[in-house]
Design brief:
Shape: globular
Helix content: 25-40%
Strand content: 15-25%
Structural class: alpha/beta
Largest sheet: 8 strands, mixed
Radius of gyration: 19 Å
Length: about 325
Amino acid sequence: MMNKKRKAIIAGNEISELYTFQLGGYEQKVLIEGKTGELPVVVTLHGGPGTPIPFSVGCRGLFPEFTNRFIMVYWDQLGCGINNHKIDERFTIESFVDMTADLLREIQKMFPHNKIYIFATSWGSILSAKVLERCGDIVNGVVACGQIIKEVFLNEEVFTALERSALPPQKLEIIKKMDVERITAGEMQLISSGVRKYTEGYVNKSGRKAPVGTIIRGLITSPDYSMKDFKAVMVNGYRNHISLWKEILKLDLSEALKRTKVPYMMIQGDTDIVASTENVKNLVESSQNPCLQYSVVKHTGHMPGMDMMDRVFNLLKEQTENTSNVDNPVNI
């Protein structure tokens, strides 16, 4: 059951409603929440694929610091959470870019006078980079943490970190011999768990931790989530799915990001080797594109902790305050 404080936050929001949209040909539920209709809109694109954390449809009333400043759009991407669905080889990166573009167009129709921004995390940063090629005229800015550019997991930084770690040598040899074309779900699990357990590539032990317990309790008591939806935050339609990951491992977004024409801020953890912070630095410094910028958060890996989320919030404020965010307010 929700506590009184959360109920009061929801009641105090002018906008707090669950909508159903057709995205990429699939009916999907999206939560939209904000203090007033005059605020800039922030569309959240979560990581994974298939991990709608920290922002999800189950978060109504959980993040007043965000909903007091922005109209937040929470979307559990198809295959997880409230939009759980079996994800098989028919689904490609472009399938999810289609859905993201459809969502942005729906939001533009609802808020035709508001500025629209994207906050993306990890896998979501692939979608934010690629959707700008279709909907660059809709989006006024992007803040992405853990930006994926290229060489995810299978790169020299990961190999070197694992060589210096306590990872058993036989497992390291398996990882070094992995073939992108023939990689299995088990092999992906091996390298992911190796980075998570033996390095600070995912989580930096010195950084301030995200309030995971608070978020989990919030999702369990969400007015929008059933227990089935809550379980599908982690165990969902992406289980044992590998074809999307094969695409991700071969991906190179360097040229797409260099061409961006809207402010695009990439926030990286200083020990992130999953989505290489070094790759992000090199890209920005070589691009000569003033729209493309990066910021490094100390004592942070690929997974956002409190320091990362504080930086995200402040940079979203900076982006949205640089221009007027609404021409004529719209009431919905």
